[in-house]
Specification:
Length: 836
């Protein structure tokens, strides 16, 4: 409780470690995670520090492990995660780890290179097999056709004339033709044909056939579609041109015999070699899989060990070496309450290293501002993150996160007041809370998911509070529940029977049930759901409630400022800031809230109220407040009282005068008192220096640096603070009206979605078609409810709530000028994140 209310008390310590025991001591400190080391070598280049060689070795081992991880992901080899947290290895174990990783990497690279070579050979043999098969099939088709002569005038690429070409050895024509067979990718084939046509001027003929199954690229592993082509030509000159075009278009040519027998013999040889190659390739792949599977059992443990070593040496690089190079000197921030744990960890690390030199931990006096450290658990961590995103609390300043755990979900629920939508949010948050261990173990990635899961307890409370406020509003998916029965009397002729035939009615508060007479037990009466003046009534209620909640919230922030002033013994701020701020806030907006309650209590409708305190004479609180500031008084209506109570005008004038007086009190005295204190301090220091010089008998030219004090800067800062508070009090109070506006918008949008979607489905007939339509319309209504009313409206209400806390609430007492405590800890390494 103390740490979340106010940051931990920190102390700056100097640590002396022996060279032999420094590694193990830092390792034990990292396991605890409560020490933040200062860099004592800020001007030394990272490549010139003592342990840079060890850090580079760790980088190289990390690279090798990432290579292994990438190869495992390629083969879909599962990486075993036992949740084990191994200790940081000893420095001498780094050699064994390096040897193991290097052996695995070399073995994998060798296996991969062999597999790639085998795949390339297999691809070439597969392509050659298809070339021989397609060529053989083509020439068989030509045996039943008579050959034709070459006609250069009418031939085109892919013309049917190419279907009747045979070389001289196979055909019986008079033209002697040669041919080239090969394989090209499907994407390059059109360009390849155009190039052949243009360069050879139409003197070649192309026959092509697509390979049905895609072939695997041995380098990238992608599936590629390829086409076998046959190019017929006449003469040696065209042959050279065709081969050059094939090379330029990255088409692979293969030797293809011209006789059918030679092609058959070659095809049999290719198939035999391909079978042998596939056997070897399968054995290579199985060996690769076995290597990766064996490494996958230890990969996570290896990652943790290497990163722990790297974090330790990175920390040791921030230490100073003494002149003998036998001792390391460090400075660190430690929570005062944990000094005993740190000393115990240092002793444990010394015993592990086997050295007899014990570490020395000395507390230091310093004027440096310590870091801010709040101890959080899984419940408070999300709320602390909300506050820290605005600004980390100054050292020992009151932490708003403690109060945010209640005020944040409550203000959100005031805007998001729907019990149905809140219940859906509660179910989602409850599922994340109940299954948090399994969800953490699954290591689900994604920025949006991480945001939701990190704020699961915030969502849980937001859902609970939304159910509460939705029950008060009696709003569940824009409908109301009549649990206790309505207590309204609808007039002399209105009954429950004929009310069902009435589209809407106007409720008059004058009428009430003479037998019941009591208000609805909890929340709004359900009869308001069918009332024409529902919005007018709810607007008035929600607007006043928003102002009251806002004033109470801001007053609480001002009260928290006095807690800071008392802790830091700032009497000056208490007298000239807190007291006038409270008077100003209570004199204006506190009085406004009192007037609201006074009106609710003393004015009403019904026979028990006189005419002067009836609904027709009820004054507008807003107009009364404006008249108070302008010192005006309105003429009353006939039969009505001019004032809400006796002496009202006098009270308002006194309050207004007090509020006006508070402004110069906040502005003027504090800068002058600070200047007076500074001058007195300077005179005292000068007097002491004079006495010291007289006693020493000599004059010293070295004077201590005097603290600078600029009265103009202090006065301007105080003026800005005063103006900001006075104007901010007005604007911030008006800003809380967003509670009313967002609540109204959410209720009306929910009602629109119901009336325009779900109401249509409920009006369908009860036959099969109507049931199907109702099912589809309900699905549409559910999608709109989740996507718009819960996600979008929920995000809008969340952002407005965040603004109310950051600006309206925290500005009253919270400076947020600190910096976060960043200790050396291995927790991030265990969870899979790298240590910075």
């Amino acid at each position: 409780m103390g740490s979340i209310f106010r940051s931990e008390s920190m102390t700056l310590c100097q640590l002396f470690l022996s060279s032999e025991g420094s590694y193990n001591c830092v390792s034990e400190i990292g396991e605890i995670g409560l020490v933040q080391f200062r860099d004592l070598n800020p001007d030394v280049n990272a490549f010139q520090r003592k342990f840079v060689h060890e850090v580079r070795r760790c980088d190289e081992m990390e690279r090798q492990l990432r290579y292994l991880e990438k190869e495992m992901q390629k083969d879909s080899v599962p990486i075993l995660d036992t949740g084990e947290n191994p200790e940081a290895p000893q420095p001498r174990e780094m050699v064994d780890l390096e040897a193991t990783f290097e052996k695995l990497e070399n073995e994998l690279r060798e296996v991969n290179a062999n597999a790639e070579t085998l795949k390339k050979n297999a691809l070439e043999l597969t392509e050659l097999k298809h070339v021989l098969n397609i060529t053989q099939h083509f020439f068989k088709e030509q045996e039943a056709h008579s050959p034709i002569h070459l006609d250069q005038q009418d031939s085109e690429p892919n013309s049917s004339i190419t279907q009747n070409l045979l070389p001289a050895e196979e055909g019986k024509g008079s033209v002697q033709l040669g041919f080239v067979a090969g394989v090209a990718t499907r994407e390059r084939m059109p360009m390849f044909e155009r190039m052949l046509w243009r360069v050879c001027r139409g003197n070649v003929f192309v026959r092509q056939a697509e390979i049905l199954e895609p072939l695997e690229d041995p380098v990238t592993g992608d599936q590629v579609h390829k086409i076998v082509f046959l190019i017929f030509f006449q003469g040696e000159q065209l042959k050279n041109k065709v081969k050059k075009i094939c090379d330029g278009c990255r088409a692979t040519t293969y030797p293809c015999p011209e006789t059918s027998k030679e092609r058959k013999d070659m095809g049999q040889g290719v198939r035999g070699r391909l079978d042998d190659l596939n056997i070897v390739l399968n054995q290579t792949t199985a060996h690769r899989h076995r290597v990766l599977a064996a490494a996958a059992k230890h990969l996570r443990t290896w990652f943790i060990k290497v990163r722990k070593i790297k974090a330790i040496y990175h920390t040791l690089n921030m230490f100073n070496l003494d002149v003998t190079n036998k001792c390391l000197i460090a400075e660190c921030w430690i929570p005062y309450a944990d000094l005993g744990r740190i000393q115990e960890a240092l002793r444990k690390g010394t015993d592990k290293s086997g050295t007899s030199v014990q570490p020395i931990l000395n507390r230091m006096e310093t004027s440096v501002k310590p870091p801010t450290f709040h101890r959080t658990n899984k419940f408070t961590r999300g709320f602390q993150t909300l506050v820290d995103n605005y600004g980390v609390a100054s050292y020992r300043e009151v932490n708003p996160a403690l109060y945010t755990t209640t005020t944040f979900p409550f203000l959100f629920a005031v805007m998001f007041g729907d019990a149905g939508h809140g219940f859906i949010m509660l179910l989602f948050a409850g599922w994340m809370v109940l299954r948090e261990k399994a969800l953490i173990a699954s290591k689900m990635s994604g920025e949006i998911w991480n945001i939701f899961f990190g704020g699961r307890y915030i969502l849980l409370l937001m859902g609970l509070f939304s159910i509460y406020t939705g029950t008060i509003y009696n709003d569940i998916f824009s409908k109301s529940f009549n649990i206790f029965g309505s207590n309204w009397h609808m007039g002399h002729n209105a009954t429950v029977k004929n009310l069902s035939f009435t589209e809407a009615l106007t409720l008059d508060p004058y009428y009430r049930d003479e037998y019941i007479g009591d208000p609805y037990p909890f929340g709004f009466d359900p009869i308001w759901q069918v009332s024409i003046n529902k919005i007018a009534f709810q607007n008035s209620y929600k607007m006043k409630i928003s102002i009251i909640i806002g004033v109470v919230h801001m007053l609480f922030g001002v009260i928290l400022s006095v807690v800071n002033q008392a802790f830091f013994m700032n009497t000056l701020s208490f007298v000239f800031e807190f007291i006038p701020q409270m008077i100003f806030m209570l004199g204006l907006f506190g009085y406004l809230c009192i007037m609201v309650f006074h009106k609710w209590i003393h004015y009403g409708s019904g026979p028990e109220f006189s005419v002067a305190y009836g609904s027709s004479c009820a004054p507008s609180v807003l107009i009364t407040f404006i008249d108070m500031v302008l010192l005006k008084s309105e003429e009353p209506l006939p039969g009505c009282n001019q004032w809400m109570y006796d002496g009202q005008y006098t009270v308002q004038v006194v309050l207004l005068i007090l509020c006006v007086i508070c402004v110069p009190i906040m502005l003027i005295p504090k800068p002058f008192v600070l200047r007076s204190r500074h001058n007195a301090k300077m005179r005292a220091q000068s007097h002491l220096a004079t006495i010291h010089e007289e006693e020493m008998g000599e004059t010293s030219d070295a004077h201590e640096e005097e603290e600078e004090f600029e009265f103009s800067e202090v006065f301007i800062e105080q003026a800005i603070h005063t103006i900001e508070y006075v104007l901010g009090t007005v604007s911030h109070t008006a800003s809380y009206l967003r509670l009313w506006a967002l609540s109204l918008a959410h209720a009306q949008l929910s009602e629109v979605v119901w009336n325009m979607v779900m109401k249509i489905g409920l009006s369908q007939s009860s036959n099969v078609v109507g049931s199907i339509m109702l099912f589809l319309i309900f699905a549409a209504w559910a999608c709109l409810t989740v996507s718009i009313l819960i996600l979008m409206e929920g995000l809008s209400a969340f952002l407005h709530t965040l603004r109310l806390h950051w600006v309206e609430f925290q500005s009253k007492f919270y400076k947020g000028e600190g910096y976060a405590f960043a200790p050396l800890t291995f927790k991030h390494i265990i969870s899979g994140e790298e240590e910075e």
